[in-house]
Amino acid sequence: MYSLGERYWGDNPPFHAPVFVVTHEPKQKADKAGGTSFIFVTDGIDSAIKQAKEAAGNKDVSVSGGASVVQQFIKAGLLDEVQIHLVPVILGEGRRLFEQMGSEHIELETTCVIESPAVTHLRFRVVK
Question: pTM of the full predicted structure?
């Protein structure tokens, strides 16, 4: 997600908080305007979530990303809810969000659906 979004976010990304990027490519921390800083985490999701929780204090932590990162967090049981923003466009390639989930049963409870012609927002609670 970072690779695709970086050029569009510009010098003042919309996050206004530390962002922990799970990656295999070590990079230096990138501080941007508005309080956003990108910290590149190369030692996995456990380290990324630990650092994010420390930085957030008593605030919520959000996980965004491509299918691989989301799959890792779901498999590890680290998500309380999942939000999917479904745009009616078929791009033809890419990794399917739930393709590599294995045989483990993960139950999701629908908590919110908002429909519009351009996008459908789906929100689920992960049943634990």
Answer: 0.84
Torsion angle, alpha carbons of 80, 25, 85, 118, to 10 = 170
What is the domain range of residue 51? 1-62
Phi-psi region of 49 (alpha: psi -120 to 50; beta: other; left: phi over 0): alpha
Domain boundary among 12, 41, 62: 62
If we measure between CA atoms, which residue out of 50, 55, 67, 12 comes closest to residue 34? 12
The domain boundary residue, chosen from 13, 44, 62: 62
- For the chain (128 residues), the mean pLDDT of every run of 10, in chain order, is 88 95 94 96 96 96 90 91 90 78 85 96 95
